[in-house]
Specification:
about 325 residues, alpha/beta, OB fold (Dihydrolipoamide Acetyltransferase, E2P), 13-stranded mixed beta sheet, about 20% helix, binds zinc ion
Length: about 325
């Protein structure tokens, strides 16, 4: 494994901004090796990807003989954000996933993402791991753009996630990492899992298994070990139901985790600590998989509480 700095900049406060990549490749180098690039920490308050990447790098360290392609790892694209528990890029207050593809002479966040794109360009596959925000918990899922789904959907199915959400082109933002890399010919998948500022060990292990499964299928690792990938729900064969809070108060979930639920199952209550009143009780509008669940308990009228994917009646 080699660690390389792909971008650095002196900051006015005397600190250095440094983006690092670690590369795993076979001991016997050869031409035309497949390359996968795995990215996380674009949003500084999202840490689940760091844990999944740690599990992967430690697996690769222990299984050096299995490596038959190039695996590039970028665990912290926004290190200043991670150090200060800030979602965006501190000093500039921008979301790094809205400034792609950036430019060499642009402002600092643009230069940073430009360097990242240049380094990843030419990879066969890229995975961008996100972990929601502090408000919502997400079951491990993949978000892909319909425009590129012919290439990315078969890969997404190998990643051992529970749900694949295919977005129409009109709702897709072009200034993102995934749109930029897909446009450059790198098949790019966005993973959303867990919750901001936390680690969910079982999700990290689930994604590790998926990443190893995908890499084995693609010939990037060669091993006797077999990795199972669960069958994901596909958004195209059903509908996403949004559950918003009808009142302001404290949301008390009735479920511990995202789960498969039945129509009319209780999802939670909105309560008022001052009076002891139960303001509202929420029930599932449909059977399906509850893939998003409110984590941060303070809610206002209209706050998102849950998203459920249900298959259409046949
Ligand atoms: Zn994110």
């Amino acid at each position: 494994m080699q660690v390389k700095e792909i971008f650095s900049s002196q900051l006015p406060v005397g600190e250095t901004l440094s983006i690092k990549r670690s590369r795993f490749e076979p001991l016997q180098k050869s031409d035309n090796l497949k390359r996968i690039s795995i990215v996380s920490g674009t949003h500084g308050d999202e840490l689940e990807g760091q844990y999944a990447i740690y599990l992967l790098t430690s697996w690769l360290n222990e299984n050096q003989d299995a490596i038959s392609g190039i695996i590039d790892i970028y665990p912290a694209v926004n290190p200043l954000g991670i150090d200060t528990i800030t979602r965006g890029f501190p000093l500039y207050e921008v979301d790094l996933n809205r400034v792609f593809p950036g430019g060499e002479d642009g402002f600092l966040p643009g230069q940073l993402v430009h360097a990242l794109v240049q380094d990843i360009k030419g990879s066969d596959i890229a995975i961008d791991i996100h972990s929601s925000n502090i408000f919502l918990r997400e079951i491990p899922q993949i978000r892909i753009n319909k425009e590129f789904s012919n290439f990315t959907l078969p890969l997404a199915k190998e990643l051992n996630c529970d749900f694949i959400w295919i977005h129409d082109a009109v709702t897709v933002l072009e200034a993102t990492f995934s749109h930029t890399m897909n446009s450059l010919g790198t098949k790019t998948l966005v993973v959303e899992m867990g919750v901001g500022m936390r680690l969910t060990k079982e999700y990290g292990e689930q994604l590790l298994c998926g990443m190893l499964n995908l890499m084995k299928k693609e010939g990037i690792i060669t091993t006797e070990n077999s990795f199972e990938a669960r069958e994901p729900f596909l958004s195209e064969i059903g509908e996403v139901f949004y559950l918003n809070s009808p009142s302001s108060g404290l949301f008390v979930p009735a479920l511990d985790h995202c789960a498969i639920i039945k129509k009319n199952e209780k999802i939670g209550t909105i309560v008022e600590p001052l009076t002891g009143a139960t303001l509202d009780t929420l029930y599932a509008p449909n059977s399906g998989i509850l893939f998003t669940l409110r984590e941060f308990p303070v809610v206002y009228e209209g706050s998102l509480l849950a998203r459920i994917f249900g298959e259409r009646d046949k």
